[in-house]
Structure formats: C-alpha cells, structure tokens
Design goal:
By secondary structure, the chain is mostly helical. Helix content is about 95%, strand content about 0%.
C-alpha cells in the first residue's frame, strides 16, 4: 500500500469519526492534504531520479578515469618499446660499423696483419662495449620513463576517484 492510499484511508477514517464537519472545511482539508501528498510524491520521485543521475555520473567518471589510466599505460609502453628499439638499432649499427672498420684494416695491409688485426679487434671490442653501454642506458631511460608515467597516471586516477567519491558522498549524504 503506497503513501497515497494510506493517506486516503486515514482521511476516510477521520471523516467517519468526525461529527459531521461543515462542507467547506471538508473541501479545504481534503484538497490540501492531497496537494501535499502529490507534492511529496513528486519531490521524492525527483530526488530518486537525481540520485540515479549522480550514480550514473559517478560511474561514467570512473570509466573515464580507467580509460585515461589505460591510455597512459599504453603510451608509456609504446615509449619504452621505442626507446629499446632505438637502443638496439644504435648498438647494431655501431657493431656493424666496427666490423666494417676491422675488415677494412685487414684488407689494407698484409705486412702488418697481426698488428692491424689486434687494433681492429680492440676497436671492435671498444665499440661493442660503447654500443652495449648506450643500449643499456637507453633501456634504463625507457624503463624509468615508463615507471614514472605509470606512477603519475595511477596518482591521477586515485585523485580523480577520490574526488568523485567525495562529490558522490556529499550529494547523497
């Protein structure tokens, strides 16, 4: 039984118990009670609709925050992968150049073959070490950037969700 039906039942009981009130008093009381009940029902319906809208907006905000986090994470992964690819390419190019320099030195002189081979081998080793160092540094930078980006995205996500909850609890509180 809803509030309106209860109010009407109570109103009928009151009418029966009353000692034949005047007609104009009955007309004033009944419409004002009905008006109050109708306004209360409309206000309650409006309140419930507003609460649904707040919950919907909160969920939308949460979904957008998750998407922003995933986008940031993907961007960080892409940046990391690019950095690693660049470091590997630079290493390969350096190694390739070192091999070419070694081969050229071997071709230029047969007389100082052993000396040229030793110099070329050393140049190759040094170049390879530099390439590996450069690669390691590139990988370190890419990983550091990735971790920082993920941490920032997570903090932003947490802040947004906290703010949304505060707004939601304030509105529904």
């Amino acid at each position: 039984m809803n509030q309106r039906e209860q109010a009407e039942r109570i109103g009928k009981q009151a009418e029966q118990q009353a000692a034949k009130p005047r007609e104009e008093v009955r007309e004033k009381v009944a419409p004002s009670l009905n008006e109050i009940l109708e306004r209360a029902e409309r206000a309650y319906a409006t309140y419930m609709e507003a609460q649904k809208e707040v919950a919907k907006a909160f969920r939308q905000s949460e979904l957008e925050t998750e998407k922003a986090y995933k986008d940031s994470e993907q961007q960080a992964k892409d940046a990391r992968d690019r950095g690693i690819r660049q470091a590997l390419k630079a290493r390969d190019e350096t190694i390739e150049k070192a091999l070419g320099a070694r081969d050229e030195a071997i071709e230029q002189t047969e007389q100082v073959y052993r000396k040229a081979m030793e110099q070329a081998g050393k140049a190759y080793q040094n170049s390879e070490l530099r390439a590996k160092s450069a690669c390691d540094e590139g990988v370190r930078r890419a990983l550091k950037t990735y971790e920082e980006t993920i941490a920032q995205a997570w903090q932003k996500r947490e802040g947004t969700i906290d703010q949304a909850w505060k707004i939601y609890t304030k509105e529904t509180g």
